[in-house]
Design goal:
The complex is a heterodimer.
Chain A: H1 3-7, H2 10-19, E1 27-28, H3 29-36, H4 40-52, E2 56-61, E3 64-69, H5 76-86, H6 89-97, E4 104-110, H7 112-115, E5 124-130, H8 135-149, E6 153-158, H9 160-167, H10 173-178, E7 183-186
Helix pairs in contact in A: 6-8
Chain B: H1 4-11, E1 16-17, H2 22-39, H3 46-67, E2 70-71, H4 75-80, H5 82-85, H6 90-109, H7 116-137
Helix pairs in contact in B: 2-3, 2-7, 3-6, 3-7, 6-7
The chains are: A alpha+beta, B mainly alpha.
Amino acid sequence: MSLASSIFSDSQSRVYLWLFGQPERSYHLSELRRLTGLGSASLQRELNRLVESKLVNSERLGSLRCFRANPQSPVFNELVALTSKTLGMVPTLQDALMPLTPKLQSAWIYGSVAKQTDTAQSDIDVMLVGRDLLLGDVLERLVPIEAQLGRKINPNFYTPEEFYRRRDEPDSFVNRVLSQPVIALIGDAHEPARIG
Amino acid sequence: MSLPALDNLVRIGQLKPELRNDLEIKRMLDMARSRLADARLDSLSREGRFASAYNAAHAAALAALRWHGYRSENRYTVFQCLTHTVGWPANRWRVLDSAHQKRNLAEYEGYLEVEESTIKELCTLVPSLIADVQALMEL
């Protein structure tokens, strides 16, 4: 059982991912229905609970009802943090990649997401090091979560030998990545082969 | 043979309809085979083998698109359409798309860092793509 599923029900996790995952964003009802994939009744039930407890604000924009996380609620920061730690990009990527270990020795996010300069359209750049794995195996795990994260994932895969060879070249792409912020997913970005 | 999903791409300007031309498709498949053979030549540089494997993949993918009566100058679209043209799952054509991004980095930023494992994976994917397109022609 994942961390998320021990805390949230399935429908809660789908709703929280959007409302508290992007807390500055306001959603139309139909938009939330599309994003969460929930039926009208269960979405309505979750939203009613959140609105009644004032965790979420509901406002009317013309004929549309819009929903947005309430930053004035006493647990706003905690819910945003809890959502990001359990349902956000990092745990979702970790859950997807975990079955590839121990062949997959190390994986980390780099690029605009790691530097926190990403926009909603930015790809998620992931570098991976492993043995007896194909990029196709990695993509088989990552492609299904792209819809959930709403982003394209762009994996860059190396065998340990290839990774260390590139790391020994001063101006290599690997070194450029390692000299900038990264977010560890599996193992250690700087010593992949020591792990697992 | 027209496909509804591809007709939608025509409507938004990502694909062009163009009548199938069997000679052209055969030429493209021949090119895919000879570039694949180049990709397996140990005497060539790693960069040369990568470029050959990538070009073989593109020629075969474009042949599949042409068989269905479409064309695109956009290489991402050509690979993306493999889902519809030969029924490839995303994790297979995305390997080709990833090679496409590597090639762009090489051409536009001078970054040509190709790994042996990438060439090896392309050289196992391309023959099955060529076989799938060949199977279309024999329908």
